[in-house]
Amino acid sequence: MNQTRKKTMLSGWTRVAIAGKPADVFDPPHPLPFALLYLHPESGETPVTDSPFTNELRARRLRCVAPHALRSWWVDRICTEFDTQLTAEHHLRDNVVPWIESTWKLGKRTVGVAGLGMGGQGAVRLGFKYPKQFPVVASVAGAFDFHERYGQGTPLDAMYSSREHCRQDTAILHIPPHDCPHIWFACSPGDAWYRGNDRLHEKLAALGVAHTAELDVAVGDDRQTSSMLAFVVASIERESRRLT
Asked: Closest Cα partner for 85 from 152, 15, 141, 21?
């Protein structure tokens, strides 16, 4: 899921407004009856200029919606950069997912959520908090220890009253006692967020929670994208067949 500095939006992507907020949408020919909700990293870059990612979406016939939420960390806290009244989490749950289901006439449990960095932790955190709405989650280089950024002049300083308050809202502290989502995450050993990914893997293993963790891949390996999307599509397909 490499980031790129190219500014041109690739073919297949369009910009729309969902509840007044921008989102990038990919709708390939002959799409599957599924969709991917992609959460961008702290830089705010969506996959609209990422050729390998876009090619994988097209090859897998997977629709994708990538909403913009600035440095909100995708949590249920007001980030004034994003909105003074609406949290990013509520925007996803109340606006974006219903838009996806309505626009493409998708059934329940047909939307997977994935992201990079800030977005990766946001995706997994959503799955832990709301596994019925987000039954399939995936992350690349997820910033699971985002409380480490507290006190460094980011919006987190205004969103939480302390570093500990921030830590209490991280994904690892939202692991549900049962009904966990399908979970996939990857992180390279040299990545700044590696320890949080390794810690999440250890915690899930200790709890006996099924998950796939690829923690020995090289930085920038595009095979992460292929592996992640293969997991997402297969897992959504299984979920969509459930009767209850």
From this structure: 21
Pairing relationship of beta strands 13-18 and 35-39 according to DSSP bridges: unpaired
Amino acid, single-letter form, for residue 139:
S
Q: Which residue carries 């992350």 as its tokens?
A: 139
Residue identified by tokens 């460094």 is 152
Answer for the pair 186, 224: CB distance below 8 angstroms, yes or no: yes
The number of C-alpha atoms within 13 Å of 37 and in the hemisphere containing its C-beta is 32
Question: Residue 5: what pLDDT?
Answer: 44
pLDDT in tens, 134-161: 999 999 999 999 999 999 999 999 999 9
H or E element at residue 214:
strand 212-214
Domains of the chain are: 13-240 (3.40.50.1820)
What integer pLDDT is reported at residue 4 of this predicted model? 40
Query: Rounded to whole angstroms, how far apart are CA atoms 165 and 147?
Result: 8
